[in-house]
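Friendly challenge for the regulars: who can give me the structure tokens for this chain first? No prize, just bragging rights.
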Amino acid sequence: MENSLKQPIIILANGAFPTHHIPLDILKKAGSVICTDGSANTLNAYGMTPFAVIGDFDSYKEPKLPFSGKKILESDQDNTDLEKALNWSLENGIEKITILGATGLREDMTLANHYILLDYYDQIKLAMVTDHFTITCHKGQKSYDTFPGQIISILPQHFYTEVSTTALRYPLNKMELHPSAKAVSNQAMGASFSVDASKPILIFRGHTEN
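First reply, four minutes later:
Bragging rights claimed.
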């Protein structure tokens, strides 16, 4: 791993900057923030300095104060800046990352960034935190901490994904899910729930209101 990186490690994408206290608290407690191109401008305006900026620098603006962090030029147009940041993280042995700023502003990039979770979930431990949800991806059985009434949505990547759940208001028992809205807006019943899926799925866990 890059010797000067400190945990926890955050990637700040160039979508809507967080406003909810949960992603903002994560950002404030970050040990190292990796920015994707223009998100460094927003982070600088917020009063924080990135550890590194990665991308093709088409939207990056030099800060007024000298920047001592890393500038990593990745001009490959086949990958988005978020993919470039994740690839760099993998090359440097990073095992766990929280992604912020990956939704909002552009619906196409929001959807693309959800696909990126599906592409990388088995290579690095990822959580995408927005102003409304914590989003993760897994295949197989996994348990999650929760609270009663928390909104839980399950979105499969593939057709004919068999899903079973425990401790949700509307249980699924070896139900075949397709990419659709069939399993959105469920609710947690207690302090934890589990999901067993035959193929990769996205799990959306809603934040508290305050």
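The domain at 9-131 is CATH 3.40.50.10240 (Rossmann fold). The chain has a mean pLDDT of 94. Your move, everyone else.
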